[in-house]
Write the structure tokens for this entry.
Amino acid sequence: MSAAAGPPSPAARASAVRVRAARTGDIETLERFIADYTHDGTLLPRTHANLVQHLRDFRVAHAGARLVGCGALQIVGPELAEIRSVAVDPAYRGLGIGWRIVKTLVADARRRGVPRLFCLTRRADFFARQGFVEVPKERFPHKVWNDCRLCPRRHACDEVAMERPLTVTARRSPPANEARAAIPAGELRVVSTADA
Ligand SMILES: CC(C)(COP(=O)(O)OP(=O)(O)OC[C@H]1O[C@@H](n2cnc3c(N)ncnc32)[C@H](O)[C@@H]1OP(=O)(O)O)[C@@H](O)C(=O)NCCC(=O)NCCS
């Protein structure tokens, strides 16, 4: 007699989850997903227009067609980016998915040459394990001005600001003639003003 197949183990569920860049087809799901965490002030609300504008910031975690997590890296200046809108579906928590999303966002920040990351969170423990340290919120006045004023909890804020410096390895751009030499001759073409 064969044993009846039970529900997949946590390890099997976690390994079925992939983290990838968000696509335009994710916008509506992402909007609903984030909205589910805004009622109690866990996440700041994001409008459809704002999600369209910032779609390139987002990574999504999905199990097949189901969106199970998200997070975004928003560049706020040449030296600073914010990790925001990090959430995992309660049915998928504790499986390392939030960890993977943040790790991917940190890698995105490194690739873009960002030397300093910050976040505002109630889960200081979660971010501390990923190398963030608590700092005064006053370090990020633009955040308080732009986003916190929209938060339902703005008069009783219990979030902490956390920061993580990154080591960025600057990549030298090759000189123009070196870059041209790297292109196979067949792929070089002269662009006339009519093409431009
Ligand atoms: C915070 C949140 C995103 C965490 O997501 P999650 O997928 O449940 O978290 P993970 O499974 O990745 O991490 C769970 C634990 O394993 C640890 N962990 C996971 N992967 C790990 C790894 N590869 N190495 C070491 N530790 C790891 C985490 O540090 C964490 O430890 P804890 O249980 O003691 O807290 C999730 O709880 C959530 O959506 N909360 C509501 C929204 C929210 O509060 N977002 C943060 C606002 S910015």
The beta strands are 17-21, 58-63, 66-77, 80-88, 116-121, 133-135, 160-165. The radius of gyration is 21 Å.
